[in-house]
Amino acid sequence: MFFSLVAGLGNPGRDYAATRHNLGWLVLEALAAKHRLAWKAAPQFDAEIARWDLSGRTRWLLKPQSFMNASGRAVAACSRFYKIPPADVAIVYDDLTIDLGLVKVTNSGSAGGHNGVASLLEHLGDGFARYRLGVGPKQPPQMDMADFVLGKFTPEQQILVNQKLDTYVAGLELLLSRGIEPAMNHLNRRDQK
Question: Residue 36 class from Cβ within 10 Å (0-12 exposed, 13-18 middle, 19+ buried)?
Answer without folding.
Answer: exposed
